[in-house]
Amino acid sequence: DRKEESAALMLIDFEITQAQRGRDHKQTRQGLRWLGLSYYEAKQFAKAEEAYLDVLQRDASVGKQESRESLGTQTNLGLLYSETDRIPEAIECTERSLSAKRRVLGPLDPYKASAMNVLIDCYKATGRTTDFQALEKELTQMGAQQLVSKTKDPEELLEIARHLVSQEELHTRSPKLAMEIVDDVDKTSDHAPITQALILEVRALVQFEMGLIDGAIASAEEGLELLPEVANKDFRKRLQDGLERYRAAKQD
Question: Which of 54, 59, 137, 224 is the most core-located residue (most Cβ within 10 A)?
Answer without folding.
Answer: 59
